[in-house]
Amino acid sequence: MGLAVGRASAPANCDGRNTRHSGDCYSFFRLRGFLALDTPNFKLSDYFINRELSALEFNRRVLHQAKDASIPLLERLKFLCIVSTNLDEFFEIRVSGLRQRQELSLPPQGPDQLTTGQVLSEISQRTHALVDEQYRLLNEELIPSLENEGIRFVRRTRWRPAHRDWLRDYFHREIEPVLSPTSLDPARPFPKILNKSLNFIVGLKGMHAFGRPVQRAIVQAPRLLPRLIRLDPSLPDTGPNDFVFLSSVIHAFVDELFTGMEIQGCHQFRVTRNSDLYVETEEVDDLMRAVEGGLISARYGEAVRLEIAHDCPAEHMDYLLEMFGLERDGLYLVDGPVNLNRLMAVYQLTGREDLRDAPFTPGQQKAVTTAENLFAAIAERDILLHHPFESFSPVIDFVDRAAQDPDVLALKMTLYRTGPDSPIVDALVSAAQAGKEVTVSIELRARFDEAANIKLANRLQEAGAHIVYGVVAFKTHCKLALVVRREGGRLRRYVHLGTGNYHTGTARIYTDYSLLSADEALGEDVHHVFLQLTSLMQTPPLRLLYQAPFNLHQRILEHIDQEIQNVAAGGAGHIIAKLNALVEPEVIRALYRASCAGVMVDLIVRGICCLRPGIPGVSDNIRVRSIVGRFLEHSRVYYFHANGDENIFCSSADWMDRNFFRRVEVCFPVLSENLKARVISDLDLCLSDNCQAWDLRADGGYRMVRRQTGEERRSVQGRLLRQLSESSPL
Fold this sequence. Notes:
By secondary structure, this protein is of the alpha/beta class. The protein has 20 helices and 27 strands.
């Protein structure tokens, strides 16, 4: 079983003999000289894992899901696509930032003290290996398995004459009219290539219409074109799920774009650019216009990666590298479509439910479903929801009923990501049109959702809502909603606080907590946060909430220190943190101090973790695990034993520099003893998982947790599905 939460083990000696680490860790650190240290220096660079390399390790764990034959086939394909999407963002943001630092000859940035050149070199080695494994998996395992299920990618070499005729007609009807092939000559320089777009470099021989020789041309495929084309099933030897890649069709008929020329090869390529939106917020007078301008320039940022068909001639590769200003380490040869994420269309188009995860109905708590009045139910007791196992609909209803209720005077929310066609946004619009006081803080700089949020802000403003765009130099990332309702001659506040976005789509696939409460102190705190966001003025000290960038970091350090003091006084100490990422150096050092003091530390970190567990004499008492499964583990939960008082906090904040110091975040306590017990039980399930859990080793690698012979199968996500979906008893 996993380590039982709230029943902290006796303090362990910090002499390197704790049984929680393996002999492998001893070997690793003996080689590096750690065992000779009497008094740990927690600032040593070797105590920290590089952030970027840790991010790549997470993608290895995701790729493992695509390899797992026990997972339904289309879900495996989905995980393969997710890795590609993750790598896109990694290059667009992280690698591009490192390249800029290298160009400026800036010193090492992280506490690991690796130079920028060292990190980029290691990234290149690891990502090339990762991409090679992606395409091996696609070609050798997934495509054959899909074909066995009647889902085929029909390559040009297998086209029947009827296929070719049908596709030629499709090419002339649907593709050729929107293409603008560009021959390259002195009058036509290399065209601008849009970030992550599908393109082709075409080798040519001959003279163009105006009498000059042409050697190369570029064909850009507009994004409106589908990357997968379903063949007409009425064609001979054609099944209902037979597909052809757009790249294959363009390749097959590219000669019809260059009449009179001899085609000497056609090869797909894709470039990834720096897409980190930078706005000098201190010097702009209109943030929305500045963001809009930044979005345009980000589409054509500096190139950081070139993906190209593996059989492309070297001369074309060298030419493209020169055009994009890239070295060879930025070149990725792929045996298949250059954008694997486009294969998600197969997941959506085939309709093969038998090849997907079994559907489920999110549970509904009786406290919500049986209540005639949602506000009365919240007033009776706090309601804690665990998505996606429990429905997100009470959160939608909270906003929707507030919009319709004549006793509701004001409705305030923070919005970071909402998704298209959001019922919550619809409710806010209705509330504003009904004359209620609607205030919405919209973060325009939510990465990759900037354009959607600008559109959202305009819609709400037109409806009459009061819109603010966050705080200069700080992203507003907290998830808050406040309803002010007149009851019995007085005003009462109702709040929603969450760990995830107000996004109905992600609420089905991300694990998050939602708290609905009428607690007066919580309501007053949330009220003060909204006053701060709108007026930018100082507010009274918050009673229950911790808030970044003001005191969240300090409060976390204080809680860690208190666990240390409790152990020093002869008590037990136990810290559990469930996070997406653990990066901030001071918190990591504080956890090392706690480990040395005998505090048991359990970290459930889905993605990046810069802390090294299992260092003899430093982190013997720290265990780090990552859970990668059907749902994206997204909730942030902080647990402190507190000599048996057991403090539980939920938050939108990871333990990262940006969350502590460059974002507006809140951390809220779980006050009800019953709800505390629920969260503790969930944490214990995470710590006991033996199906989807990975343990971090001291060398920065991960080892999958394996069930012992005869051991009970324990999946945290599977158990919560069984316990909470369909109907919740609480």
